[in-house]
Amino acid sequence: MKPARFDYVRAESIAHAVEALAGAGGDGKVLAGGQSLMPMMNFRLVKPSVLVDINRIPDLDRITLEANTLRLGALVRHRMTAEDALVARHIPVLLAAMKHVAHLTVRNRGTFCGSVCHADPAAEMPMMTLLLDGTIHIASPRGTRTMPARDFLIGSLATALEPDEMVTAVDLAIPQDGTGWAFEEFSRRHGDYALAAVAVLMERADGRMRNVRIAMMGIADTALRFSDVEAALEGREGTPASFDEAATLLQASIEPNSDLSASADYRRHLAGALARRALADAWRRARDTAE
Ligand code: FAD
């Protein structure tokens, strides 16, 4: 298949990009890595009248340390994230997640921010942005704004972004030293989109769990956080019984869909099994801050 006709703008700056989007009258699209957009255009699932290529805008391909966050610019490719020393040092759970993203050719081009904007319910990056209390940096002809990831991701392939806005960066909060982490994913073949995945962060003090964070994907229209399960684990001892209870609570709170890849019951079972395993793994890695 070939895409429908479109105009092409090679943006020289963020201001140039958002002006071009505004000029498209609600029908423009940012081109980042093109790994999701181009197939969708080729299948004519989307038919933008203007394609705004941001690949030549300077300085967007950086991962920087800003106070207690890592900032990933709009042109940070999956491969850069997977090989970055700051990510390895400060957010090892993200490194673990990146190993599951697609194959080398896709990772060379696909961008972290592009994946968050694409908002595929089975993608790792939106889930990791939720887990890490991410903040989305947005530019438009009206100026700049920021938005928490939990408000940005609103559904399957749907975000709160306006048609004349582009994402310039995503900030990920760095977990405290000693935080335990785990990432578990199940897919039929390595590099395929996952059937489900879970990521966990937890602190440990006086032999008890603190500030547990659980994010999951593949089991709803968008990646999810589980504030009820997180709250239920606060102050509990990290025992198999607590992890079982948490997994049961999590399973009760989801409504997975059935599709060609898996039934709803199977996805619910998978969610429980992955959550139980990830909680135990994060607990094992967490360093007790009161010891
Ligand atoms: P593009 O394709 O360029 O854009 C995607 C959408 O986001 C478009 O609507 C575009 O307009 C918008 N957009 C992009 N950047 C911005 C921005 N800065 N501001 C505003 N809007 C923007 N992903 C996974 O998570 N896990 C996988 O296992 C996986 N497997 C894959 C396997 C294959 C074979 C392929 C082709 C893709 C796979 N992907 C997977 C998707 C891949 O990660 C994409 O790179 C990613 O989803 C989109 O990033 P991109 O930079 O390519 O965005």
TrEMBL record:
It comes from the Bacteria. The keyword Magnesium does not apply. This is Carbon monoxide dehydrogenase. PANTHER family: XANTHINE DEHYDROGENASE SUBUNIT C-RELATED. One of its GO terms (molecular function) is FAD binding. Pfam families: CO_deh_flav_C, FAD_binding_5. Transmembrane segments: none annotated. Keywords: FAD, Flavoprotein, Oxidoreductase. Residues 1-177 form the FAD-binding PCMH-type domain. SMART domains: CO_deh_flav_C. InterPro entries: CO_DH_flav_C, CO_DH_flav_C_dom_sf, Diverse_Substr_Oxidored, FAD-bd_PCMH, FAD-bd_PCMH-like_sf, FAD-bd_PCMH_sub1, FAD-bd_PCMH_sub2, Mopterin_DH_FAD-bd. Its EC number is 1.2.7.4.
